[in-house]
Design a protein that fits this description.
Porin; 407 residues; eight-stranded antiparallel barrel; globular; 3 helices; mainly beta
């Protein structure tokens, strides 16, 4: 619970601090909080010693399938030049699989996700090279499997120490290349082998502009809304084709994985949904990009059990402008990991997870009119906890039709 509360407060503080600028023209300048932040993407091999020793005595697998390719994504905030706090996730590209259990054709996967909160300490070698050490807490969530209603490998959810070390090369004030090693010790209590990862990656550090440069960049004819209020409605009768396409789960003939893997679907389906959303611009580029923060209240009714659920969310929004002309501005937006409180858990018999979860949205919209006072948007939504917990069936909200007003 403390971990979830920290993430909620972290993002909420970013949102509040992003509104501190009194001069609207300085939206082209980062807030003091964001100017000390960075993100890191690392790709490499993940290793864990799953085997027959993890299965009950009466069960064994003739072989296993291992996909070692994995990734680790981190968001960091610098407390000082050499000390930072990091929040991140590590997972394989494909789950570990036991093949042909007991030689009768059972194939079962073990899912493991690791979310972490840690401190990173840099040790400078010279003006280009540095070493770092990382120490923190890992949230390990494992989904096991059953055969014929008999639990063979149990689910698990526990906290463990995470350590990492690495070598970094500074390309510029913004970019650093990294060689990394990450380790989580085994847990005999939870029948979980140790997890280790070796990876290559980079860090991108946000940089503050001078006030003069920010004001010069702000002097342009392009519209960016300061505030938006929106009302949305969706109905499951329209189907979940868009959700499935962007979740790469559209069925085309015998092919069941057609689409683009950039969003999620969910086992719980929302038959009706209604949202009220407020968004405020925190940062913008000269023409093509803005970072917004928002809050929303969404009510939806589940498709199967007709269960009524309310969701209260705060979230970041990445907005990319695709086409600007004299009468409208066309954009797409993407929001991820918006801390959310649901009034129901485990909806309609699906193990959708606890009431504390995340909201993700993706949309395509326009600002209309000479002064861009009006807004129309098509949006899909998703609620899940990102496998922080082993209960994570997720909720899919199909296309919402959205009307908005800027001010």
């Amino acid at each position: 619970m403390k971990f979830r509360l920290f993430i909620f407060l972290y993002l909420f503080c970013v949102a509040i601090q992003s509104q501190e600028k009194e001069d609207e023209r300085l939206l082209t300048q980062l807030s003091s909080f964001l100017s000390k932040s960075y993100y890191s993407i690392n790709l490499g091999g993940i290793f864990y010693n799953y085997g027959n020793h993890n299965l009950p005595e009466d069960y064994s697998s003739s072989s296993v399938s291992r996909n070692f390719f994995s990734g680790r994504l981190l968001l960091g905030h610098k407390l000082n030049e050499n000390l930072a706090v990091q929040f991140g996730v590590m997972r394989p590209a494909a789950w570990f699989k036991y093949d042909n259990i007991n030689n009768i054709g059972y194939f079962r996967s073990v899912w493991v996700n690791v979310w972490s909160l840690s401190l990173k300490k840099n040790f400078t070698i010279d003006d280009k090279w540095s070493l770092y050490g990382e120490l923190g807490w890992a949230n390990v969530a494992r989904v096991g499997f059953s055969i014929d209603d008999t639990e063979i490998y149990s689910d698990a959810h526990f906290g463990e120490i995470i350590t990492a070390f690495g070598l970094q090369y500074k390309l510029s004030d913004k970019w650093r290349l990294s060689l990394n090693g990450t380790y989580i010790p085994k847990s005999d209590t939870h029948n979980q082998p140790a997890i280790s990862q070796a990876s290559l990656g980079f860090e991108y550090h946000l940089q503050q502009k001078s006030k003069e440069k920010a004001l010069k960049q702000a002097a342009n004819p392009y519209f960016f809304p300061r505030n938006i209020i929106q009302i949305s409605y969706g109905n499951g009768g329209i189907g979940y084709g868009v959700n499935r396409f962007f979740g790469m789960s559209t069925k085309v003939g015998n092919f069941e994985s057609f689409g683009i893997p950039i969003f999620w679907v969910g086992d719980v389906k929302a038959q009706h949904s209604f949202s009220i959303t407020y968004q405020r611009t925190a940062y913008r580029s000269r023409k093509l990009f803005s970072l917004d923060w928002g809050a929303s209240i969404t009510g939806f009714q589940s498709e199967l059990g007709k269960t009524n659920v309310f969701a209260f969310s705060v979230f970041p929004v990445l907005r990319f402008y695709l086409w600007r002309n004299n009468t409208f501005d066309l954009y797409t937006n993407y929001s991820i990991i918006g801390p959310t409180y649901l009034t129901k858990s485990d909806i309609d018999g699906f193990i959708s997870g606890p009431k504390i979860t995340y909201q993700d949205t993706m949309g395509l919209g326009v600002f209309l009119g000479k002064t861009r006072k009006y807004n129309f948007e098509l949006r899909i939504m998703h609620y899940s906890n990102g496998n922080i917990f082993n209960r994570n069936a997720g909720v899919a909200v199909p296309i919402q039709f959205t009307l908005g007003k800027t001010f």
